[in-house]
Amino acid sequence: MTTPRARLEFDVLSDHLALMLAQEDLAAIEATVHDMSPADLVRVLEREDPDDRAIIYRLLPRELALEVFERFSRGMRADLLTGLRDEHVVGVFEHLDPDDRAALVDELPASVSAKLFSGLSDKERKLTAPMLGYPPGTIGRHMSTEYVRVRPDMTAAEAIAHVRAAGAEAETVYLLMVTDDHRRLEGVVGLRDLIFALDDGEPDDGAGREPVTVRDLMKKPESVTASDDAEDAARRAVRTTHLVTPVVDEEDRLIGILTIDDANRIIDRADEEDAARAGASEPLDRPYLITSVGTLVRSRVVWLLVLALSAILTVQVLEMFEDALATVVTLSLFIPLLTGTAGNTGSQAATTVTRALAVGEVRLRDTWKVAWREVRVGLTMGVLLGLIGAVVAGLVYGMDFGLIIGLTLVSICTIAATVGGIMPMIARAIKADPAVFSTPFISTFCDASGLIVYFLIAKAVLGL
Asked: Which family does the entry's similarity section mention (predicted)?
């Protein structure tokens, strides 16, 4: 956790850099940033405008520049590469892991991407090409093609020797892929298991024991297919608890691996996007302070328009019951309470079920179970809130209004919880993002249905 003192020191450093930039004192800037940690440099560069960021970045030593670049968000990486466009940038691009290069392609202009790829060595271009063959959003775009594979007929000693020879540039060697001669995945074997099998596989006292082979040690693989949705595949990979998950094509041929670190990054990014959309905004690819005003407006205005248009339905409902409102003006006093309660109840249910869907706790076939559970949850909450609302409204406005508010709260909580629970399931069924699909629909439906129920109960109780 950042302490107040650390924050103060960072603010002083930022102000000092801003002053040196204004004075164009490049030597002083270079001396200052040379001694900064990568984490502090990232925080500084996130706050600078693109021109100043490029100036500071050019002054970094090569190794420090590479480490800082790897910590940037995808949006900041794209901005920096687009702005520099020189040999220094090509070197940074080549140093990236192949999966990071593939991810950047979606952020960069086509001309910049072409220039950067033309500067890659044949080896790095060959490592990156397989990922570009899969659409954005699939796990094939995030896999690593740098891995070590062994054959099942290798002895433990042969497999370890192969790791020594071929594993220097691999993403990881803790879990090795076992394939046949046609690259079809047969299993996985841990480096630890191979090391401990060496002693067991050596002949001892003329006993003539057979050497331990990879086939003796390998385990059944839990793989993902390259065309699978990235978030779904990442969550499956995390649930396996393995450091590495094999990525195969449609014919079960090994084409890459997904590390647990990459899987967690995919999940974190997906969770951030869901959180933003649940708040009626599009996620940002760049830190807030360097995101343009136009981008911020675009990320919010679409949702505001959707919600504004959906509010027309609420207006239509009020118009339907304008005679009742004109007769008993007190009815209008409770509208904010009821619509707010309905919306919050539906949003709570939708958030809970969306999370359960994301982590695999519920599936589409559980739709009716989810609906029945939310009916009971909504009814219980409605009874609790209804009793409180009935007592308060009854004491202030009379027993008739207490009865109306109590019955309405029971009804709308039940309806809102049920709708909020099944909307993410419907979204998943039609292959829409539950977080995107649920928010505007629940807001509209709960407001409109809540008001209809409210006025129907009021007309029945008051005899309007």
From this structure: Belongs to the SLC41A transporter family.
Q: Which CATH code of 1.10.357.20, 1.10.10.10, 3.30.70.580, 3.20.20.80 fits the domain covering 292-462?
A: 1.10.357.20
Please give the Cα distance from 108 to 105 (Å, whole number): 5
Q: Which residues contact 211 (CB under 8 A, 6 or more apart)?
A: 155, 156, 157, 201, 202
Match 């539906």 to its residue by tokens: 346
Return the CATH number of the domain spanning residue range 4-135.
1.25.60.10
Q: Which residues contact 174 (CB under 8 A, 6 or more apart)?
A: 190, 191, 192, 243, 244
For the chain, what is the radius of gyration of the CA atoms? 30
pLDDT along the chain (464 residues), means of 10: 53 75 78 80 78 77 79 76 63 75 73 73 81 86 89 90 86 89 91 81 54 88 90 88 89 90 87 69 65 73 72 76 75 86 88 82 88 94 94 90 93 93 87 69 81 88 80
Does CATH number 3.40.50.300 belong to domain 149-275? no
> Cα separation of 46 and 53, whole Å?
8
Q: Which residues of the chain are in CATH 1.10.357.20 domains?
A: 292-462
CA distance 165 to 462: 86
pTM of this prediction? 0.66
User: Reduced to 3 states, what is the DSSP secondary structure of residue 438?
Assistant: helix
